[in-house]
Amino acid sequence: xxxxxxxxxxxxxxxxxxxxxxxxxxxxxxxxxxxxxxxxxxxxxxxxxxxxxxxxxxxxxxxxxxxxxxxxxxxxxxxxxxxxxxxxxxxxxxxxxxxxxxxxxxxxxxxxxxxxxxxxxxxxxxxxxxxxxxxxxxxxxxxxxxxxxxxxxxxxxxxxxxxxxxxxxxxxxxxxxxxxxxxxxxxxxxxxxxxxxxxxxxxxxxxxxxxxxxxxxxxxxxxxxxxxxxxxxxxxxxxxxxxxxxxxxxxxxxxxxxxxxxxxxxxxxxxxxxxxxxxxxxxxxxxxxxxxxxxxxxxxxxxxxxxxxxxxxxxxxxxxxxxxxxxxxxxxxxxxxxxxxxxxxxxxxxxxxxxxxxxxxxxxxxxxxxxxxxxxxxxxxxxxxxxxxxxxxxxxxxxxxxxxxxxxxxxxxxxxxxxxxxxxxxxxxxxxxxxxxxxxxx
Length: 442
Fold this sequence. Notes:
The protein is mostly helical and 442 residues long. The protein has one domain (2-438). Helix content is 77%, strand content 0%. The protein has helices spanning 2-16, 21-35, 40-75, 78-90, 95-108, 113-131, 138-147, 149-153, 160-169, 177-204, 227-247, 249-256, 263-278, 285-315, 318-327, 333-348, 351-373, 377-388, 398-406, 411-438. The chain is globular and about 60 Å long.
């Protein structure tokens, strides 16, 4: 079993040093295989690649369509139009809240957090410049709006972290709505309290906005589409994904004679509507779609590489001892799930990758525990989703590295805020969720 921890440590260390998980994950997997007594080449070509290909097969359509949808919304200015509308509604006086909610609206609408980072940053910079708030807080605000409550907690989210548990538990995107809503509020309110505290702390020390060497100017004269039209594709994705739960599955089936819509269909609807509304704003629709599709490849390969590592971990004898340890944690079985998902999400630096590994290996066990304990599978779904958004944002996380690079900040400048709003507070929300499930408040 120590070989598993050695492989995990190597994976974290090399990823933190900026090395691509695409080639780091196989090396870490071979370390696990070697210490576990497996043959090296078959471990890579069979166990590793089976896990890699399995995840790609299951989720590539979602990654691809999500990336295309995000690219269209970004290139046409629709994403920025929605963000501007949110900022205008809240007011520049509450710059941090405006940035957080603008990110939240876009991610809950199905736009990739990577797209949101690039779309929101110029707007956030302009807001913080005008409010004279230090730029060090921008990464924390974007992380809170993009990496937390809309990604894992709010019922009905089309983000993949809310969808992966469905295939293991047979649940829906709106699973455990009370737990999810309370968890989202803890993340949002807790994160805002922290960021407001940090803003006042910096101000008391005389730390205010300092211009970048290369000034990034928000183009206020840019002609954006109307915010209401821009919001429609986002609403279509969320509503079509969740309409069956809104009006009742039986009614939905009676009306259309079919099962509820999947995320693939919902994203297709959003893409088609976005193209219909904004095709004049795209110089070449095919070029935009091509760029979105190409951008999805790296994302799915990164996550699949992490899942492939997990497949090798499952193949070594030591995994039985590790599984027994996790499943043997005393008390509520949701604690075992939360620990497993958090550890693997942290080790891989990926919320979806870590959760995919944990549920692929232990999903059947959690289903059995649900039956024996009486805890609904919906609670297992929500805890898995929320747990994936905890330790995933350790310093080596790809989204964290991208966010710091885009905002021209360093770990020293801004990682404490990212850790508080996207790691520690979400873990607190998971603890509260487990307590709620214990009293059947889901």
